[in-house]
UniProtKB/TrEMBL annotation:
Its EC number is 6.3.5.7. Residues 21-455 form the Amidase domain. This is Glutamyl-tRNA(Gln) amidotransferase subunit A. It is an enzyme of class 6 (ligase).
Length: 476
């Protein structure tokens, strides 16, 4: 049976046995899973591992199993965004990040559960039912990349990929006690990522250590001409793995410790900042006054983009098609009525409303103006400090069913993650303690394209603390 291992642990195992045996042991663990983290298993995983063994692959991920969020296109392997409307859809091509992973020798294990079309914070809106948090199976794993975080936390995959539109990598990383990075917008190609809100989202890695995050970024980062927002800029992320924060200037935005924050979350984050001080960094409070408007602006922009991006799912080309109506219109509307879940429908309706004539200026345009103000808060803060630190989520993982009937309370949980996507800056969540037995995430935000400073800060914290080593079931 496979267990919690980082990439170097997996490589040692491969050297002692074979990629095929390691993949087989992960597949066995997944078979026995009780958390509903995977929605599809790649039937060619063992074959791929065997080919790695036979060819003596020397890539940085040779034989390393990877779990992939169900909105990232995988050739020959079903990709449904955990939606009924895409049931049966098998992409004819690989996303850019999948091409890169395969070239590096990675073995794709399968697709992980998510909120339908990445719209959510709990993985409860999935057509396949919720993923359970391995720390407490009555609780949500966070979302929308809940499956990707939970399978890593449960030892069902050493590393995974998620996507982050407004927190979907960082939230489940925090709730499941793993590390997750949202890269700067443009650093990882979105080619093959099924769009929810394309001006906000990035694919991001999830793992048990910061080192593995850097290794994955070295593989998946980089220019791709097929994504018009891809940036041509070279960076070696693993260069950042140095235990040294002497002189690092930390800003602590007071607006991220607002109403409704859990006391133990607050304490864990301040303890972490205290630790940084001990390690030679300095900190000061900073103000980011437009933070309070970020959530409203985010949801208007995200829903508007979603209403346009999801127009393509009409039964003509992909997945589900309702019984033929008398014409295309009835077929398309029946398909959409049957295929989309309640949350997706809500967002398409609200997004269409926000973009419609007469309301466009009042809602969408105004939200874009607020987005600029939020971005300027970051620009201003970064003239004075190197990184910002705050709780990733204001509370630990909540109970399954607790918020699902109250969409507004779910949206409010994203208060500390969405500003980062509006601004396009990079941000990482690392484990920093516990609240009521559930993991707490420290969020470290950086300047655009300065992933290496937040990786160095996160790595140094990890080297000097033990939070990331505690496994589900081990917390006191
Ligand atoms: N919870 C946020 C939303 O529902 C973010 C989701 C995401 O990052 N994909 O939009």
């Amino acid at each position: 049976m496979a267990s919690w291992k980082d990439i170097s642990g997996v490589k040692q195992q491969i050297a002692a046995s074979s990629a095929e045996e390691v993949t087989a042991s992960y597949l066995e663990t997944i078979e026995e899973s009780r958390i509903n983290g995977f929605v599809a298993i790649w039937d060619k995983a063992l074959k791929a591992a065997r080919e790695i063994d036979a060819g003596g692959h020397k890539g940085p991920l040779a034989g390393v199993p990877v779990a992939i969020k169900d909105n990232i296109s995988t050739k020959g392997l079903s990709t449904t965004c955990s939606s009924k409307i895409l049931q049966g859809y098998v992409p004819p091509y690989d996303a850019h990040v999948i091409e890169k992973l395969k070239a590096a020798g990675a073995v794709i294990l399968g697709k992980t559960n998510m909120d339908e079309f990445a719209m959510g914070t709990s993985t409860e809106s999935s057509h396949y039912g919720p993923t359970l948090n391995p720390w407490d199976t009555e609780r949500v794993p966070g979302g929308s990349s809940g499956g990707s975080a939970a399978v890593v936390a449960a030892g069902e995959a050493p590393v995974s990929l998620g996507s982050d539109t407004g927190g979907s990598v960082r939230c489940p990383a925090a709730f499941c006690g793993v590390v997750g990075l949202k890269p700067t917008y443009g650093v990882v190609s979105r080619f093959g990522l099924i769009s929810y809100a394309n001006s906000l989202e990035q694919i991001g890695p999830m793992a048990t250590t910061v080192t593995d995050i850097a290794t994955l970024m070295d593989v998946i980062g980089g220019y791709d001409s097929r994504d018009s927002t891809s940036i041509n800029r070279k960076n070696t992320y693993s260069d950042a793995l140095k235990d040294d924060v002497k002189g690092l200037k930390i800003g602590v935005p007071e607006e991220y410790f607002g109403e409704g924050i859990d006391k133990n979350v607050e304490k864990a984050v301040w303890d972490a900042i205290g630790k940084y001080e001990e390690m030679g960094a300095s900190w000061k409070k900073v103000s980011m006054p437009h933070t309070r408007y970020a959530l409203a602006s985010y949801y208007i922009i995200a829903m508007s983009e979603a209403s346009s991006n999801l127009a393509r799912f009409d039964g003509t080309r992909y997945g589900l098609r309702a019984e033929e109506g008398e014409n295309w219109h009835t077929m398309a509307s029946k398909t959409r009525a049957e295929g989309f879940g309640a949350e997706v429908k809500r967002r398409i309706l609200l997004g269409t409303y926000a973009l419609s004539a007469g309301y466009h200026d009042k809602y969408y345009l105004k939200a874009l103006k607020v987005r600029t103000l939020v971005k300027q808060d970051f620009d201003r803060a970064f003239t004075d400090v190197d990184v910002l630190m705050a709780p990733t989520m204001p509370t630990p993982a909540f109970k399954i069913g607790e918020k699902i009937d109250d969409p507004l309370s779910l949206y409010l949980a994203d208060v500390n993650t969405v500003p980062i996507n509006l601004a396009g800056v990079p941000s990482i969540s690392v484990p920093c303690g516990f609240s009521g037995g559930m993991p707490v995430g420290l969020q470290i935000m950086g300047k655009p394209f300065d992933e290496n400073t937040i990786l160095r800060a996160a790595y140094s914290f990890e080297q000097n603390t033990g939070h990331h080593k505690v496994r589900p079931g081990e917390v006191a």
